[in-house]
Amino acid sequence: MSWGADRSIVGTTLSAALGLGAVVTFTAVRDTSILRPLIALAAPRSLPSDLVAVSLLPLVAVLAAVFLTRWWPWLLVAGAVLSLPTALVHLFPDLGAHPSLSIVALAGPPVVLLAVLAAAQDLLRRGARVAGLVVIGLTVGTQLFAASLAGASWLMLTPGGLVWHLVLTALSVAGALLAVVTRSARARAPEWPEPRPLTPRFAAAAILAVLLPMALQAVDVVKISEVLELPVESIGRHPDVVVAIGGLIVLVGGVIACAIAGSRAFFAAATSASVQVGAMAPLLLAVYSVAFQPVLSWLAAAVGVAAGCLVGATRWRVQFAVGGAVVSALVLFIVDLGTGGVPEKLIDRDAVIPGALLLALLCATVVAVIVTTGPRLAEDGVVVPVLGPLSSVLVLGGAEAMTAVGVRDQNAPSTRLEAVHRLGYSAGLLLLAAVLIAGIAVVEHLRSDPKQEAVSA
Question: Can you give the residue ranges of every domain in the chain?
Answer without folding.
Answer: 3-188, 200-456
